[in-house]
Design goal:
Immunoglobulin-like, 11-stranded mixed beta sheet
Length: 168
């Protein structure tokens, strides 16, 4: 009897590890590679029906020997206009400002687009951002070229922490 309980216990623990692993794989499936550029954890927050703007976030890693620049995000059907924004302090107030020359990603560096930092600004939403839905956009890099990614709609407060601290 004791042996059976022990077996069940091991099975239970092992079983939950398998589950964790599976959800991590799902999480990592929202990952893209374009030459030496790696993009992962692409998401946007859900919005109330009346919202006019939304922001997109991701991690961009540049494994190339030279810097690259995210010049624009195009091909977005759910917003009228898309800009790349940075956050700056002005008179002790956080403000966002468009990066007119794009977002620089130095060689061998990771840049995080995240709340209170760099972000993709979707202006003039044509539809609300709904949980679980994917929202398409094409990222255009100066050197690496273009790639279409899916912004996954998640609840406010979501943090892609697993992506942020993992190196592979
Ligand atoms: Cu903004």
């Amino acid at each position: 009897m004791k042996k059976i309980i022990k077996f069940l216990f091991i099975f239970f623990v092992f079983g939950s590890f398998v589950n964790i692993d599976a959800s991590e794989k799902n999480h990592h499936s929202n990952k893209y590679k374009l030459g030496n550029i790696e993009i992962e954890g692409v998401y946007t927050f859900i919005t109330p029906p009346t919202a006019k703007v939304a922001a997109g976030y991701m991690k961009i890693e540049n494994e190339a020997r030279k810097a690259d620049t995210l010049l624009s995000v195009t091909n977005v059907s759910f917003a009228e206009k898309v800009e790349i924004h940075e956050m700056i302090m002005e008179n002790q107030v956080m403000k966002m400002r468009p990066l007119l020359d794009g977002l620089n990603i130095a060689s061998d560096e990771e840049v995080y687009l995240k709340p209170s930092g760099f972000h993709i600004m979707f202006i003039g939403l044509k539809e609300p951002i709904v949980k679980g839905k994917m929202y398409k956009g094409t990222l255009n890099f100066k050197n690496a070229g273009s790639i279409t990614v899916n912004f996954k709609a998640v609840d406010r407060g979501y943090h892609p922490d697993k992506d942020h601290h993992k190196h592979h």
